[in-house]
Amino acid sequence: MSGRPATTIPAPEGAPIGPRRRVRGARLDDRFNVIGAAAAGVAVAVLLFGWVSPLSGGVGWVLVAYLAFLGFYALLVSFTSDAQEVKDRLMSVLLSSAGVLLFGALVFVVAFTLVRGQEALPHPNFFTQSMELAGPLDGLDMGGIVHAILGTLMQISMALAITIPLGITTALFLNEVGGRFARFVRTISDAMTALPSIVAGLFVYSAIIVLITHQRSGFAAAMAITVMMLPIVIRASDIVLRLVAGNLREAAYALGSTRWATIWHVVLPTARPGLATAVILGTARGIGETSPVLLTSGVTAVTNLNPFAGPMISLPLQVFDFVKSPEPTMIARGFGTAAVLILLVLTLFALARVVGGKGPGQLSPRHEQRVLLASGRDLQRMNVRNDLAAGDPSPRPESLPTSSPTDLTTKETSS
């Protein structure tokens, strides 16, 4: 392969041959333009804020330096490029700056919470005890948030038990059935995506607590979380199911498959990674809600494992209850609880990226072995059928089910 000449595309006759443009990475002159413009922008900001004008303030300094950087960068690029490339370079810089700004804000929030919560996180009792025997004046070596962790897990589990089948079934109805009513349901689900969380809490408070249970409970909080999670799961699942190629459904129908069999054996397996991502994103949305559980779950310092009787606190509500105290130890517990909640949400988003990163048809090694074993069984069954049709009752040696998934993988690799 290394001895073969590289494939080249001949240029039109008379066309100027310029340097090859690198699609990935930056050229030397591009790096020079960025570095030079950044140095010039900093210099202009220093002159304006320290020498020329009586300006002050860190935010203003950064803003002036950035605007000067954009101006000098456009000027440097214009020396060697036309107006269209100048616009393209400026837009690339603006988009890159927006990404850096958002990433920096995320890092700041996470780092600030972890730093403020480092007083409470190293204590083992913070994860194994409740606040039943700890007061506001007690040290961090007493009390913990195990009751809030268990409450969050129970509430989100009940919400998922309702959201997953209802959300995915609704998305299947919108894509596979359709019709005028489907358009109405899609409009309602899109509108519920922007529903304020306090409205969901008020709805559950009026419909369940006031009319039925007459007390705050973990079940009522789970229903409020469900109202917040359901539009996210429906909308994300709807988009994922739209991406399933229509020729897959047509091929299944052409082979005589029914609509239900096509959905179960073709549509859902193809969209499985995207559906898992939709569920995890909905879970991350519901697990951090504070307003709905503030009205429906109630505040308690003890561990309550019965979601249908008595208040059951969750992590977001525990943060709200801790940080409103004037005691430094309670505020430290609040930031520690917020750090646990942030790490839990980031873990869910990372899991969504890992699960959603697998495309349709990408199988795990264990699943590949199961597929190879099933193919081997199909081959053995067809060989036995052919032998019986030919009048040979003794099965051939290769028709005997003696192969393991490892053997089949080895044979497939060697062939």
Automatic annotation (TrEMBL):
Subcellular localization: Cell membrane
Transmembrane regions: 32-52, 58-79, 91-115, 145-174, 194-213, 219-241, 334-355
Sequence ranges assigned to domain ABC transmembrane type-1 in this UniProt record: 149-352
Protein name per Swiss-Prot or TrEMBL: Phosphate transport system permease protein PstA
Annotated source species: Cryobacterium shii
Gene designation: pstA
GO cellular component, one term: plasma membrane
Region (Disordered): 383-415
UniProt-listed PROSITE patterns: ABC_TM1
PANTHER family, A to Z: PHOSPHATE TRANSPORT SYSTEM PERMEASE PROTEIN PSTA
Family: Belongs to the binding-protein-dependent transport system permease family. CysTW subfamily.
Biased composition (Low complexity): 399-408
UniProt-listed GO biological process terms: phosphate ion transmembrane transport
UniProt keyword list: Cell membrane, Membrane, Phosphate transport, Transmembrane, Transmembrane helix, Transport
Function in brief: Part of the binding-protein-dependent transport system for phosphate; probably responsible for the translocation of the substrate across the membrane.
SUPFAM superfamilies in the cross-refs: MetI-like (SSF161098)
Signal peptide (UniProt feature, chain positions): none
Topology relative to the membrane: Multi-pass membrane protein
GO molecular function, one term: phosphate transmembrane transporter activity
Chief location of this protein within or outside the cell: membrane
InterPro entries xrefs: MetI-like, MetI-like_sf, Phosphate_PstA, Phosphate_transprt_permease
